[in-house]
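Hi, here's the filled form for the chain we discussed.

Project: internal
Contact: R.S.
Residues: 213
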Amino acid sequence: MPDLSTPTRKPERYLGSRAALDDLLDAMPVGVLSTVVDGEPWSVPLLVARDGDHVLLHGSTGAGVLRHVAAGAPVTLTVVALDGLVVAETAFDSSANYRSAVLRGHLEELRPEESRGALERLTDRLLPGRTSEVRASTGKELRATTCLALPIAEGSWLLKARTGGTDPAEDPSVWTGVVPLALTAGTPEPTPGTTAPVPASVTATRAAYPHPG
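And the returned structure, exactly as it came back:
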């Protein structure tokens, strides 16, 4: 499998920092998993969570494509954060600030005895502490769930980013600049009839994705 660590275009945007990759994976809870099935491209967005040197993801055991990738089909996982719109003097020169990662490899299907812990780690990375607030998953629920792990191996990932603004405008009467964008958590919306207070896991999630102002 070719090395992904060398970009072919705009090399100044390449980040070789594993710490920066981890920061992006820890900040963005959704990735797009892609592979080829019967000669046709296939992609699906999934909730993801980094656990050390692996990215955890899960799905229904009834999903045929997940069985396909669990059996060894190569995959890519793409994670993107759009950090801002860069408004230049012309549409052509306008751009975006972003961080994007592509990880490539083969998924490892976790054994049943490993799945419970992995699913708890995935849950707690998305909603910190949630597994201590609710009952444990039943055996039936675990048997209905496929838990997979994608290794983060050297040479198997590419991280790129753009930051900053635009060049000085030739015409100062034309507004240029940056419109910051971010993933934020709003006010929790309880299910009608719920009487319990907002739990610590939800409060922690809101803190992880603070709303401006």
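Let me know if anything looks off before we file it.
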